Amino acid sequence: MTRIDKPGIYDLTAAEYHADPVSTPSLSRSIALLLCDLSPAHAEAAHPRLGPGLEDDPDEAVIAVDAKEDRDAGTAAHAIFLRGENIIEQIPFDTYQTKAAKQLRDEALAAGRIPLKQTKYADVMRMVDVLEKMRATTGFFTKGRPEQTLVWQAGDVWCRCMVDWLPDDPSAPLLDLKTTGGRARSNTWSRGAFDKGFDLQAVMYTEGAAVLREGEVASMQFIVTETRPPFGIRRFELSPDAIDIGQQRLIYSRSLWQQCMAEKHWPAYPLEPEWIDAPVFVQREWDWKLRQLPTWAARIAKREAATQRIIDAKQWGG
Question: How far apart are CA 33 and CA 22, in angstroms?
């Protein structure tokens, strides 16, 4: 495809976006996360223009079967709800243990479609129904455009992101649709938010929108829906403290990216020794055991004294 050499808002396919269409290799949220959490070498290897290109999901090869089905269900619902595009190939079997089922699955994958077994297909359709009811009652995902690619410059660094829903009103929050195979609990969801770089996502995406639309974007909101009955939906927004952490991580990753690009050097992990702290639960467990030590010592002494009395009684014929 023709390389993008001007900042702007573009309507690209997911494949075009993930291939990095920018004239100069650009920084995305997933690459920024690798720079923060792993090393420049990991970022280079994952970038589609610099290495083998594992940007989508470097852990996908080890994903569990159930988790993969939930992810596929989320991808399918995402396409139907946002783009009105049904990319599902319904497999009329409940397992892939038969040759016929495996053949249908493989043919669907070869055609670029998502194979879903009967029960999972029904779940996706019900999930989409729940999302449509949410759209009708709240007005979310109504006035705007789905899956828009934002390309902008921050100093010398080209950045890009794909927004699930870009509202027509520049002051309205950007919307990101996420699915979970578990439950949409705030405490559970927040645990994975930083591991997955949602703080970076909120900061980068709102920055890109503000730059390109010459105004401040209020926020980014995450619409999280469950992939299993009752397909609950919750709406999350990161706190100011969380956004501050995301901003710091963006500054760090962008500075590191700029340096590595300029020097054409992508170092791996540093070899200096690192402190490893005991997890909190280990510290708590040993604190409890140490507090119990006098009690245990007393019990042992009491048991030994009782044993000695029995021995003495037997010796003296008691």
Answer: 19
| pLDDT tens profile 230-263 | 999 999 999 999 999 999 999 999 999 999 999 9
Burial class (CB in 10 A: 0-12, 13-18, 19+), 148: buried
Q: Provide φ and ψ at 268, rounded to 5°.
A: -90, -155
Amino acid at 186: S
Positive or negative, the Cα torsion across 277, 281, 283, 286? Answer: negative
CA proximity to 140, closest of 9, 233, 243? 233
- For residue 49, the SS3 value is coil
Cβ atoms 20, 54 nearer than 8 A: no
pTM score of the predicted model: 0.80
User: Mean pLDDT across the chain, nearest whole number?
Assistant: 86
Does domain 1-37+139-263 sit in CATH 3.20.170.30? no
